[in-house]
Amino acid sequence: MQVTELNIYPIKSTQPTQVSQAFVESKGLNFDREFMITESDGKFITARKDLELYRLTAFPISTGLVITHTSGQKCVALYQDFLEEQSSEVWGTHFNSKVADKRVNQWLSEILGREVQLRWLGNQSQRVVENFAENPLSFADSNPVTLMSLKSLEQVQEWSPIPIEMARFRPNIVIDGNIAFEEESWEKIQIGDVLFTKSALCTRCILITRDLNSFELDPKAEPFRTLKQHHCDEKGKPVFGIHLVPQSSGVIRVGDKITVKS
To answer: Are 13 and 47 in contact (CB under 8 A)?
Structure first.
């Protein structure tokens, strides 16, 4: 088995940036979900409700971030301009993050049609991964890294009444796989020089029903409905992919082999 694709999402809930290699640190892939867009009170904004986020793509540069919109507009956010620190929130957890300057926030507010802000983790995240206190957490929902298998996608596609792409599931690491859903039984794996521990299964939400061309939610809630019928956890929540927590740092690359340790 090997890695077939690597993705980072510099701004939470926006489009991925595909890379051929990535440096893995304790909080995940470098540049992954280090920024997020919030309401003016710091509450995170998600593409589950705001489809406009799917029209945004972010590219890390040495001095900050270049944000592009499907309309052709772009904006540059510089690290040096994130000066003010305010409280922010992701799924009920509250912590401080740095707020972008007025110029960047005004540009994003015009895009989304209301007052919003861009937040940056800063040099040190104030969040930690549940049950992994040594691992800081980015703006990701709950865990540093997600891994998904093309073999598992093939099985879901057989069940699904609509065509589905891996990108709907927003993976960091995509592998080819041997058997559908075998990744769910893994406890520890190695990719390149990096060791990972599985922390949880990826339970899925309505976001996977957002069409990647129209950006609209599927009227029949597919493939969420298909997963809920065919592949759930013990609580009845649809599952696709696994969450990983890095136990070491290093570079992983497309083409790296996956070694199952346990």
So the answer is: yes
Could you report the per-residue pLDDT of 30-86, keeping only the tens digit for each? 999 999 999 999 999 999 889 999 999 999 999 999 999 999 999 999 999 999 999
d(CA 35, CA 99): 10
Map residue 14 onto helix, strand or coil: coil
Phi, psi (rounded to 5 degrees) for 169: -95, -5
- Sequence length of the chain is 262
Helices (H), ranges, the chain:
102-112, 150-159, 224-230
Cα 253 from Cα 247, distance rounded (Å): 17
- Of 238, 246, 186, the residue nearest 1 (C-alpha): 186
For the purposes of burial, counting CB atoms within 10 Å of the CB of 212, is it exposed (0-12), middle (13-18) or buried (19 or more)?
A: exposed
Which residue type, as a one-letter code, is found at position 164? I
